[in-house]
Amino acid sequence: MRPSRATIDLDALRHNYRLARRLGGGRALAVVKADAYGHGAIACARALEADADGFGVACMEEALELREAGIEAPIVLLEGFFDADELDLVERHHLWTVVASPWQVDLLERHRARQPWQVWLKLDSGMHRLGLSPEEFVPAWQRLSALPWIERMVAMTHFSRADELSHPSTPGQMAVFESVLASLPPGTPASVANSAALMAWPATRREWVRPGLMLYGAHMLDAPCAAADELRAVMTLESKVIAVRDLAAGEPIGYAGTYTTTRPTRVGVVAAGYADGYPQYATSGTPVVIDGRPGELIGRVSMDMLTIDLTDHPEAGLGSRVELWGPNLPVAEVAARSGNSPYRLLAGLKRVPRRYA
Ligand SMILES: *Cc1c(COP(=O)(O)O)cnc(C)c1O
Asked: pLDDT digits over 104-115, tens only?
């Protein structure tokens, strides 16, 4: 069998969730959208079920996958519902939904509910993607509060630059959020922080935090942060060396000859490529871990294979284990070598079998 695989450490996932909840000090919504950032939504939700206060998904399809797997915890639709047809499903499956646009408020006012609802009303505090403007927010809150079947509402917003630790954007968005919150009834529950804010901006912690990326042990904070040091990588993407060749200096390697040897070079071919989710444009010099020792990618990544420099690894050879990211090599570091993010690399995992440990 092809030796490529992704090992998912569910203990590390639980550790990271507990860290998130401890930092948040309230309840923590475990964000498992996009198949739990490539880690497998059902397996991750089951692993967290005993601990988690609830799960966050992007859409109905993802919520139903969890319900069909027997997950009974609260589930929040972070992108809300897309049309009136979904309202009955929200209700039947006891989902909580984000409401972020005036047209959704209109639909809810026309809905005949048979069950109590929980709605998370989203403010656009400056990201300018989803959310009601500060002017729209309070009227929408009042309209929804007037619906007797809406049992509980949470005020929420989302940050655009919480991973930039010296940028004024996060405190600025927080000030906008607080000023709107001040016009709502005292004690209104709020949810603001994603992973980066939760770890690096303690002033953003409210009743509910919404950790995603950090659950999987990754971050892209641009400065040191004690909480980030406590994360444990959940996914290890690894494969093996399936061929070795010795090249003279001056020989090109792989498609487009993007790398030419500068010395007699021993090249290892690894069974992992961009069809597995490894970034195609990772540059020569991107770190890998060869039998536990730091090494480097050389040459262009192919669909099914990539090449590494074994010249300084005389003990390595056919069958050597190559970690492409994992506990010994942060996925964010690999991502940065191709202008990618850890979000994209994790969520882009394909083809390789996942093993749970
Ligand atoms: C994806 C998402 C999160 C989680 O963000 P991370 O940066 O992965 O922690 C939180 N809130 C909302 C609304 C999201 O869409």
From this structure: 999 999 999 999
